[in-house]
Structure formats: structure tokens, C-alpha cells
Amino acid sequence: MEEMNKPIAFERSNVERMEYEGTAIVTYREPGAVEFQGRQVPAYNTIGGLNIRVARYIGTVYKPYGHIPRKTEADFNVGGKVISGEYLNKMINNTRVYAMVAHNEGLSDEDAFYAYMEKNLYDFCHYKGKYFDQAMALLERMSIGGKIGEMIGKDFFRAMVAQKGMVGTIAEPTLEQDSAGIDGFFRWKAGDVDKEVTLQVKSFRETSPDLKLLKAGFESMKKAEGAYKSISKLGDAASDKQKAYLEVLQKNRDAVASAKTKGMVSLSIKGTDGLIDYLILYKIRYRISDMDIEQAMSVYNAIYDATDVIILRVGEKKGEETVQKVTWESEPEKVFVFPMSSIVAMKVKI
Description:
By secondary structure, the chain is an alpha+beta fold. It contains twelve helices and 17 strands.
């Protein structure tokens, strides 16, 4: 039982599966590093290495127009064409866009994919490239769902912590913090003391039967939480029946749940203590793929009601040490694995 109680250490798989319209390429993010200008950088035939080259290429093309990759996101004009700095930033490390290019070129082999990308960044990074407009349109569609989902996740979080007397605001991250994995800072006052926790918001996929089990387990755990605390306080004074019941409750607390996700997660990030404190997972069950942001916002309440949200407490302090309670697995799909006891709140309509 003691072994089960240990927090799950954070792990990130090195395998990445890129998919678009039936085309899939399995590759590595960072299998190793090579020396470049006096520092270690990911090898080229990896997503990490490709990201570096995409960022450099975008910087070379658009710096004369005032755009600096991952530092500026304002729209700018190039020869009468308005380009979104935000979407250009999201083109870097966007495996969906990379897979779109592979699909368009009929590439399903990893080596052929990297060989093409090395010589043809112009095709999707340059504003005159043959896939540039398609890439920007794809990024816009992806961004709308992400923006709405992030808003819903934050609104639900704010509502849940307010019930515990933590009334505050959520501050947006800087571009550098956003790139590092921070989606927001929840700030509130506890008496005269200013408090702050970091948030990360990600979409997830899951089947209804699994969500039903997760929801039932969570509700059962919450109902039993009071009994667990009361019996635990008795210690040796607890009766044999109470001790047996306590063991059952402990097993429920140690149960492991999971949620499949489309997006990457980075929990080892820059921050006050290098941790994300809360991971917010969401699944939108409202069709918004054909909407622009204004249309989506006009039916925001309906989308909110139709969205599943799970809040996990993943950063935990143990004296001076900090630990993560979420594991990242990648085979056969990307999956968050977490103890049931790390679930803070959830709303699931199934």
C-alpha cells in the first residue's frame, strides 16, 4: 500500500504520432542532440530539430516586417496580405500542420518526410508558398476550438475554487511562458497574503463508458472522503471493522484513471517552482468546426454546458520538494495517467 501512495513521477514519451486526413507518420521528438554553434540542439530528423529550423526560417522571412518568432504575435501586412503573427507562432511545433504537408505530398515514410521538409520549408512557411494559406486556415480552425476550450476550462476552475473561498482572477501568460506550457496564473488573497497557482489547459478524448466509470469513481471517492479522514484520525483506536473499511477506501483513493489527449503536455516548465499546479482537461461536445470565433462566442453558454471538464491537482509540495502526480504515456496513444485522488473537480454530461 505504501508503494501505491507514492506520487507518480512525470514522464514524457519520446514518440510522436503525426496525423492528418488518414496520413500518419510516427517519429521521434528528441532522440539525441548534436553540437551547433557551441550548444546542444536536437538532431534534425526529429520534431525538435524540425521546430528549430521552422522557427529560424520564419524569423528570416518575417523579421523585416517586425515579427519575431515566439516573441510577437501582432498581425502585420506583407504586400497587401495580412498575416497573423499568432498563427505563425503556432506553426512552430505544430505536428498537425507538418502532417498536412506530408499528406499533400503523399509522404508516409519518416525519412522521406524529413528529406522533403529540409528542402521545402518555403512551401508552408513562406507567404507565397503553395501550402501557406491552407496551413494558416488549419491553424485558425484549431485555434478557435483551443481558445473556447481554454476559456471554458478556466471559467470552470474559477467557479470551483470560488466555492472554497478562493475568489480571484486569472492572468494570461507572456508568450515565453505560454511556449513553456503555462496557460494562466490564478491569483487570489488569503487574508493579507497574495497567492498564485499555475494552470495548464489541454483537450482530451475519451469514450463514454470510461468517463462514466471515472465519474462514478470520483463521486464515490468524494462521498467517502469524510469517512476516510475521520477513521484515519482514530489511528490504533479504530475498530477492526473501521480498519477494514479504511483499507477499502484507501484502495479507491489509489485507483488509477486516465484520459487520452490530442495535444502535447509539458509539465516541467518555467515557473515559480518549475511546476504546473493544476492541469485542466476538457472535451467539447458541441460542433464548432464550422464556426468563427464570433459565432462560437455567441453560443458560449451552450458550448460550456456541453463540455466535459476534469481538474487535476498535479503539483504538490512535500516540504521543500515538489512532485508531479501525472504520468505521460504515448503507446498506443498519448494518455494522461493519474491517481483518482488528484481529481479536484469534474463536470461530465454522459
